[in-house]
Amino acid sequence: MMMIDKILQQQIEYYRARAKEYDEWFYRIGRYNRGEENNQRWFHEVAIVREALHKIPDVDDILELASGTGIWTQELLDIGKKITAIDASEEVIAISRSKLASSKVEYYKTDLFTWQPNAEYDLVFFAFWLSHVPPNLLDSFLSKVNQSVEIGGQIFLIDSCFEPTSTATNHIIEDDDNFYKTRKLNNGQEFQIVKIFYQPDELQNKLNQAGFQAEVKITDNYFIYVHGKKFR
Ligand SMILES: C[S@@+](CC[C@H](N)C(=O)[O-])C[C@H]1O[C@@H](n2cnc3c(N)ncnc32)[C@H](O)[C@@H]1O
Q1: What is the third-level CATH fold of 2-230?
Q2: What mean pLDDT do residues 6-22 have?
Q3: Ligand 1 centre and the CA of 129: distance in Å?
């Protein structure tokens, strides 16, 4: 197995093992609690991104990639009639299923690096996923996203900006060229994953090459987010 394949496998294992503690990151609990001021900044910026997402008029079909424990699936329930949610971890799918308890969501356990798109959607959404796609697989991933959107259909994506307080207190985050990063569980177990921090221009160009007209925005500290339309 090549090094990158091993890391991508570990990345799946990391999120499987982390499933029960995953939401601590988003809700700033335990190792992710960075103090009142930072937490307030975080939630304020989450609200900005959420508001931008909810500006999308209602659609019929949404595809959510790497849907995780359903933090954003919950938001998508207000926008789409039906949501297809894909993730490689049955553990996170089980949590999302029990939290949302919605017949509008259909879940599929699928590895996005071997996934073959087989339908077109009005909106394709992914949060905190693109940063985990290694550079050599980015173009092929975005081309599959393109195949999954109807002409004139939309994409919305959210990801992390480089900001040390976004991750756990015991994670070292360095804005260097090495996109392999070490992540730990609450019990200290370590995993290697891929994490890339995109600059707005870079992301805009990549999406444009992939057939999307995209508006890329950043919040003051934590998030980069994109609303785009498929033009070819
Ligand atoms: C940072 S989490 C984001 C989850 C969710 N979108 C959110 O914003 O909370 C990354 C997700 O990618 C999933 N994942 C990791 N590798 C994957 C792969 N190869 N194919 C599909 N999903 C994968 C993990 O199980 C995890 O749920």
Answers
A1: Rossmann fold (3.40.50)
A2: 98
A3: 6
